[in-house]
């Protein structure tokens, strides 16, 4: 599996290469990831200013806490975000509707990358 930094660089590139998938979306996500490889990352969708980066961000609309391995599975489409939430593998603070939207957006970028 890819390293966390690599995954977020790929997400950043995908968002910048094809911003249509998130058009009109305004949201700030923070990911607090734990496990063998841990870190805090964020993704910002704000019209033409969309990006993914390492570190904490103020005023996140949706904060997701999960194990790194589960996050990697979710990004690869091997773990459904709703299922992860329902089984306690994903904890969400903030706007749950945005969490559901993110799953669709990540899935569309994942499909485009294949």
TrEMBL record:
Keywords: NADP, Oxidoreductase. It comes from the Bacteria. Residues 8-106 form the SCP2 domain. One of its GO terms (molecular function) is oxidoreductase activity. InterPro entries: HSDL2, SCP2_sterol-bd_dom, SCP2_sterol-bd_dom_sf. Signal peptide: none annotated. It holds the Pfam family SCP2. Belongs to the short-chain dehydrogenases/reductases (SDR) family. This is Putative sterol carrier protein. It comes from Virgibacillus salinus. The lineage of its organism: Bacteria, Bacillati, Bacillota, Bacilli, Bacillales.
């Amino acid at each position: 599996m890819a390293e966390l930094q690599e995954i977020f660089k790929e997400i950043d590139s995908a968002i910048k290469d094809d911003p249509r998938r998130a058009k009109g979306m305004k949201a700030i996500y923070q990911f607090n990831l734990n496990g063998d490889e841990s870190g805090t990352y964020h993704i910002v969708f704000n019209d033409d200013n969309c990006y993914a980066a390492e570190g904490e961000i103020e005023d996140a609309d949706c904060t997701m806490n999960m194990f790194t391995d589960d996050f990697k599975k979710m990004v690869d489409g091997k773990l459904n975000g709703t299922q992860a939430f329902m089984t306690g593998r994903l904890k969400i603070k903030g706007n749950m509707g945005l969490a559901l939207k993110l799953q669709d957006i990540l899935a569309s970028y994942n499909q485009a990358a294949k």
